Amino acid sequence: MNKERKDIIVAGAALFAMFFGAGNLIFPPALGFLSGNAWFLCMLGFFITGVGLPILGVAALAKAEGSLDHFAGRVSPLFAKVMGTGIVLAIGPLLAIPRTGATVFEIGIKPLFPGVAPLTASILFFVVTLFFVLKPSTIVDKIGKYLTPALLLIIGMIIIKGVVNPMGHPVDKGLAQPLARGFIEGYQTMDALASILFAGLILSSLVAKGYKTMEDQIKLTCKAGLIAGTGLMLVYGGLLFLGATASGMFDTGITKADLIVSITNTIFGAAGQTAMCLAVSAACLTTAIGLTAVVGTWFEKLTHGKLGYEPVVIVTTIFSTLISVSGIEKIVSFSVPLLIIAYPIVIVLIVLTLLGDKLGSPAFKGAVAGTLVVSVFDALAFLKIGTGAAGTLVARLPFSDSGFAWILPSILCAVVLELIRSAKSLNLSSPAARD
């Protein structure tokens, strides 16, 4: 195996490990269970936002030299900092870190030790997290090195057995617009947001291995992304199918965590359930440690040291402890309005970055502004907050029923501002203007 191929495989495996957080286990089975015999269309929608966008995000950041300032700075430098902070908070103490604690309790502890209180489990989990974040140790690397393969082995065995000998048959659940539902549910992985931060790590590793030209870095990053994306599709698709085969077996009100535990128990019995619980718990720990460290590093750098790393990670773990006891279902419900606003903006920036450098800053500003306005109305509508005539207008936009009302305003605002920029450039370059 030549050096380039080996480096691509290593980078692809690293990307897969970064994206495949143990908390993401809960969403594909739940979506399959919800969709029933419409699982295939749901899967396609989920693949777009849960797999395709993160990989495109890595490619876009590679093109932007791994810099968030280059990626979002064409809107404005302030916007890049605000957006970066929002993403760090979302994949940090507001959503993703508390979700790891809640996942450990509901999947890793509750099935094995039902008498343990959620707060007790959460405090213990985040005390251990804080210990490793404040005192980095090779044990964390070793846990991550061996746990990801172990978790994948367990999941792989469950998926293969569940596909070869299905638990049941997908039933009609009456889900409207399964493709759009899968697209929106893919937001919950939060991997497209995380890709903006992960890309810099991949690029740095490639540069360290001797790939100095941007062409090589983009090419290798895209190939690594294909490897990571293929792995994610196999795992997510398999889990979603298992959920669909269970669509007629369990009560409609079953929680996401109870569903994956019940599926594992049905397919492999108590031994398989115990193995899954232990692997998920340990994998969530490594995810929490990594994300907490990212939060501390970001705010220390953003404030030029005014907010120190240690105080930030301490506050992060305390806040995450309090949020995690709300449980997975409530944390997911908290996240939906934020993701409805954030994801379309990230999608627009990814697309514009990949289109090339011919678009000017006005196109970026217009596209983001149009997307932001509509996405805010969509989030308010999800929260059932009245928005009057403006909300009614947004609801009548093309593709609004599918959750894509932001597409047309984004394009129109980008085109209008770009045309204005072009007209000004022509006026300034005309003979009359020069005279």
Please outline the helices and strands.
Blueprint: H1 3-19, H2 27-35, H3 39-63, H4 68-72, H5 77-94, H6 96-109, H7 118-134, H8 138-164, H9 178-185, H10 191-208, H11 214-245, H12 256-302, H13 309-324, H14 328-355, H15 361-382, H16 388-395, H17 407-429, H18 431-434
In short:
This is Branched-chain amino acid transport system carrier protein. The chain is mainly alpha-helical. It has helices at residues 3-19, 27-35, 39-63, 68-72, 77-94, 96-109, 118-134, 138-164, 178-185, 191-208, 214-245, 256-302, 309-324, 328-355, 361-382, 388-395, 407-429, 431-434.
In words, what does this structure look like?
It is a multi-pass membrane protein. It is found in: Cell membrane. This is Branched-chain amino acid transport system carrier protein. The chain crosses the membrane at residues 7-26, 38-62, 78-96, 116-134, 146-164, 192-212, 224-250, 270-295, 307-328, 334-356, 363-383, 403-420. There is one protein chain. The chain has helices spanning 3-19, 27-35, 39-63, 68-72, 77-94, 96-109, 118-134, 138-164, 178-185, 191-208, 214-245, 256-302, 309-324, 328-355, 361-382, 388-395, 407-429, 431-434. The chain has 435 residues and is mainly alpha-helical. The protein has 2 domains: 3-335, Amino acid/polyamine transporter I (Up-down Bundle); 358-425, no CATH class. Helix content is 78%, strand content 0%. The model has no long low-confidence stretch (mean pLDDT 85).
